[in-house]
Specification:
Blueprint lengths: L5 E6 L2 E8 L2 E8 L19 E2 L13 H7 L15 E7 L8 E7 L17 H7 L2 E5 L4 H5 L10 H16 L5 E11 L1 H10 L10 E5 L10 H11 L8 H14 L26 H8 L4 E7 L11 H7 L5 H29 L5 E6 L14 H5 L3 H4 L10 H21 L5 E3 L3 E5 L3
Parallel strand pairs: 2-4, 6-7, 6-8, 8-9, 9-10, 10-11
Antiparallel strand pairs: 1-2, 2-3, 3-5, 5-7, 11-13, 12-13
Length: 444
């Protein structure tokens, strides 16, 4: 039986012990805050004994996502427990990193429609990214669904999940130097709801001194507006929930909400989300001004994939019926994918990039064209296996049907290099890698 080598870190919050494996050191499941249900996160006291960081962080309470599991070919909660006390993070650093290395730090914020996901899900294994790019990757957890993104009534604060993310970044800034990281070179990167969270963090006064670079991947910014009626409907559905209701009751109600909100159209596809006008966000009508005002503090890389919504179309009955129509069926389906991708992802990303470029020196727009040509194509989440490559994890994914591991690895290495370069200095040259990615700088 192999005994993995322990590595000891002396931090501001006490001694933390991680483990060396696969040419990296993994420091798992560190609590960065504590929060009572429906309350803001609070710092935890320093450890009085060494903290053995050898267990994956527990996932936030959530319902299983059969659609995501089918497409990804993996249960994202595999090997993870679930716990309401989910304010934990995990750190991955290259082996032999010295305390004075001052490596760039990348903080991963997972997606999942603000109702599913976990930082330590095996589909987010950061080993290759950290090892190849010689940087530190931190995977964080934050509250989801009713517990994290539905508030503003009965004494329940809104945006608690967002406040968790801010608390995690603050912990990282205060402690990452002890792991060889540079607290003044922190890059947030996140996909889908994770990218949406990052986009909204840019406009907050709380976060502008906590990080320097952001990578906003496939954020559904086209459905962020005019959500008050839907949110109020969700609030009415949850008012009868007792503050101390069992988790299973809360999660059952959450599933009911997800189904009931479909009547609100595209917005109803992601009913949970940030709420404007509550800490720590401005009113909806002031969001563009807030983005423009804070853009000067950050280097920004924002983008989308060619066919974002192709991931969801197999689960939309009307689209499947149209696809079977003779002669024009497939063309109609492709048109729907193009239009919905434009509305939800592409056009709002371009607009936001242009808005922020007015005041930021470095704003870059990317477009990913990589994907399984006979499957989903360059679809939503396709960047995840490229950034977090792992042959064992991704071998059964419908998402990658027909793509060899060698191609996934080699093309993923190119993307990881771009992300790593941006994390090092917040700048990129314009790039065009055929069948992978194109990047252009947005001028003022």
């Amino acid at each position: 039986m192999d005994i993995m080598e322990e590595v000891v870190f002396k931090t501001l919050v006490g001694t933390i012990i991680g483990t060396k494996e696969n040419a990296v050191v993994r420091i798992l499941g560190i609590p960065y805050a504590k929060a009572e249900r429906y309350q803001y996160p609070k710092p935890i006291p320093a450890f009085t004994e060494p903290f053995f960081a050898k267990k994956y962080a527990p996932a936030p309470p959530q319902n299983a996502s059969p659609v995501l599991e089918k497409v990804l070919g993996v249960d994202i909660l595999k090997s993870l427990t679930m716990d309401e006390n989910c304010q934990n993070l995990s750190i991955t650093i290259p082996e032999n990193t010295t305390i004075n290395a001052r490596l760039p730090v990348m903080v991963w914020i997972y997606g999942g429609s603000y109702s599913s996901g976990a930082g330590d899900a095996e589909v987010y294994n950061p080993t290759l990214l950290a090892r190849e790019q010689n940087l530190i990757v931190v995977n964080i957890n934050y509250r989801l669904g009713i517990l994290g993104f539905l508030g503003g009534f009965d004494g329940r604060p809104a945006n608690l999940g967002l406040m968790d993310i801010i608390a995690a970044i603050r912990w990282i800034k205060n402690n990452i130097a002890a792991f060889g990281g540079n607290p003044n070179n922190i890059t947030l990167f996140g996909q889908s709801a994770g990218g949406d969270a990052i986009a909204h963090l840019i406009m907050t006064e709380d976060a502008k001194d906590l990080f320097q670079n952001v990578i906003i991947q496939s954020a559904p910014l086209g459905i962020r507006k005019k959500r008050k009626k839907m949110t109020q409907t969700m609030i009415e559905m949850t008012k009868a929930l007792q503050p101390n209701a069992p988790l299973e009751v809360i999660l059952k109600k959450q599933e009911e909400i997800n189904l009931a909100m479909r009547k609100f159209g595209l917005k109803g596809g992601m009913p949970f989300g940030v709420q404007y006008g509550f800490a720590t966000l401005p009113q909806e009508e002031n969001t563009i001004t807030a983005w423009q005002g804070n853009a000067k503090h950050f280097n920004i890389l924002i983008g989308f994939t060619d066919e974002e919504t192709s991931l969801f179309m197999p689960f939309v009955p009307i689209v499947q019926k149209l696809k079977k129509l003779p002669v024009f069926g497939k063309s109609i389906a492709k048109m729907i994918i193009r239009k919905t991708t434009d509305i939800i992802y592409r056009k709002p990303a371009i607009a936001l990039a242009k808005d922020m470029a007015i005041h930021s020196a470095n704003v870059y727009l990317y477009n990913i064209s990589w994907g399984a040509k006979n499957g989903f194509g360059a679809t939503h989440t396709i960047d995840i296996p490229l950034l977090f490559g792992d042959e064992t994890v991704w071998k059964s994914a419908q998402l990658l049907d027909g793509i060899s591991w060698s191609k996934q690895y080699e093309d993923g290495k190119k993307l990881r290099n771009i992300w790593g370069q941006f994390a090092r200095n917040g700048q990129l040259g314009e790039k065009d890698i055929p069948n992978l990615i194109s990047i252009k700088k947005i001028e003022k």
